[in-house]
Design a protein that fits this description.
This protein is of the alpha+beta class. Helix content is 49%, strand content 26%. It is built from two helices and four strands, in the order H-E-E-E-E-H. Strands 1-2-3-4 form a four-stranded antiparallel sheet.
Amino acid sequence: MSSRVRHNPRRSGLILMEVILALSLFVVAGAVATSAMNSSLDAVRRLRMRTQAADLAVTKLSELLIDLRVGAAVLEDEGPEPFEDELLAEWTWQIDVEKVEDEVDSSRPVLMQLKVTIAHTDQSIGYRIVQWVPAEPWMSRRSR
């Protein structure tokens, strides 16, 4: 007793269509997941670079304020200059100094705005930090 299985060509055609549809959905889902992963990795890389730019700006401003405190800094615009460290060769720094003069005696500044700008040479990533400092302690120390 052998039983014969009838082979229905319509049924096998539907199974083939289901398999093709499932594979195409799987490929589309994989492409979407890969695109989302690449976008996420790019966002993390840019965030890491922005954070590094902020750290470099704070460090450069701190160096400038320490140099002012000990009287070793000249208060004038500088840069853009590359960093000396080889690991930071893709970054540049710039210092802008703006002096706000006294309304009564315009020969001596009252405040100074120190603006430190950090920029990446390849990417459009940068950071700027501004610090207002009283000019008198720095200026009187220089005149001695």
